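JOB MANIFEST
job_type = single_chain_structure
chain_count = 1
residues = 276
[input]
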Amino acid sequence: MKNLLNYEGKKVVVTGAASGMGEATAKILLEQGAEVYALDINDSKLDVKKSIKVNLGDKASIDEAVSQLPDVIDSVFSCAGIAGTIYGSGRFTPADVVTINFIGGRYLIESIIPRMPEGSSIATVASLAGMGWMQKLNVLMPLIKTSTFEDAKQWVDENITDPNVMDQDETKNGSYGLSKEALIAWVKYRAYSLAEKKIRLNNVSPSSTITPMLADFNDIAKADVTSSFISPIGRAAVAEDQANALVFINSDLNTYISGQDLQVDYAVTSKLFFGE
C-alpha cells in the first residue's frame, strides 16, 4: 500500500519541539520515519536526529541554529511561540511577544527556504486569536512587507502602541493576538510567491489546546479561557489534535493546498461567527 503521507527519510525541522504541539508533531514524524531536527530554547527529549537550541527573539541565535541544519530540508513545522507577556517563569514586553511569535519565526523560515526543493512544505502555528487579521490588513501590511529581522523589529517598536495596531490591551493578550494576526496575514501573502518555487505554505489556527502553555494563557486572562473555546464535542483540543493537522497539511497527501489558514477547532468558530 502506498504511503500517502510519505515522510520516510525526509529531513524535517520542528520548532518548539521540546513540548506541546511541537513535541507531539515531532513524535508523529519520527513514527513516520522522518529525520527530525528539533529546534527549541530547551533540549528535546525525543530521539531526534539533532536537538538544536534557539531563541527566536535573537537573530544571532537563529542564524546559529540554521547553520547546524542540513543542506536540504523537505518540511518545516514552525510550532514555537510564547503565550504572551507571561510565559513560564519569564516576563516579556509586548514587542518581545511579536518578535518571538512572528518576526523570529518568519526569519527562521525565510533562512531555510533556499534549502528547500520543489514539492517541499511549510506549516506554521497561529491561533484563533488571529482571526481579525483581514479587518486589520491595511495596518499589518507594512509589517508583513518588511524584508529583514531588523526592519520588522523597528516597525514593531515604533508602532505597537498605536491602538489601530494592537487593538486589545494586555488584559486581553493584545500582543499575542497581534503576533498571530501578522503570522496569518504573512502566510497568505507569502504563499503566492512560493508557488513559483513549488513550495507550499499553510497555517494551522488552534482553538484552546491542553498544553503546558495553557496555564500561562489563564494567568494572563485571570480566568479559565478553555471553556470559551470548546464546541459541542465537549472537550478541549490536545496537542496531538493539532499535530495531526500539521502533519497532514505538510504531507504528500496535500498536493494543492497552499496559503490557507486551517482552523483546528472542531467548529467552535461557528459559534463565534453566528453566536448560536
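[summary]
The two ends are 44 Å apart (CA to CA).
The chain is about 40% helix and 15% strand.
exit_status = 0
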